[in-house]
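Re-run with default settings, no changes from the original entry. Doing this only to confirm the output is reproducible before filing.
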Amino acid sequence: MEHQGIRIEFVGQIELYYDRGNHHEFTSLVKELARPGELSQSTSYPFEFLNVEKPYESYTGANVRLRYFLRVTVTKRLTDSVKEMDILVHTLSSYPEVNSSIKMEVGIEDCLHIEFEYNKSKYHLKDVIVGKIYFLLVRIKIKHMELAIIKRETTGSGPNTFNENETIAKYEIMDGAPVRGESIPIRLFLSGYELTPSMRDVNKKFSVRYYLNLVLVDEEERRYFKQQEITLWRKHEKTKSKPTLQAQKLGD
């Protein structure tokens, strides 16, 4: 096979689904593997990209995709041969220095007064949300209460801003009418859900935020809710040394 050269690229790219014609590259490195010539047999080319900057986590959402990939191009006279292979990138973080608790109130004048608190505002993806809800005044008939994790993906800017909300999890806290002075504990394990770290204004193209949404429903199906943003991050895991396999020649 005759060719006009072979090259390999390492690419970091953001693709907005509503703007499919434009791919926004934030990382692009190229190495030439072979000069123009002819391939007459199976050939391999070693390559290496050193100290590649990978500032963002790989992400696939409702309206946007951030991907890293290797692309090999064999340049030919008529149609180039192109092959791509995706690479998954995770961004790891250490424990945040400031991680204050969340305390808020939900109230309807002379009808309902609730205080609720969560032990912290930043959680790693395998963490547990621990909290408590206090009923200070209850004069409406509450049927049940639930806690939901809402993921909000924001793409674009200005008039071309798109918000996509997705309910990741629903956790029933209470079934039945509470009384004044009652408190209900919350314990929600995050490890069972498909979550990503929070992302803020990635390359000025998109953001991913998470919210805890507390919902109360009364007997007339009226809904009362309070929403609070939380931050999710991917924790450094302690790597265990992998066992090595040694080959040993056995006699007859």
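Residues 247-252 have pLDDT under 50 and may be disordered. The longest strand covers residues 142-155.
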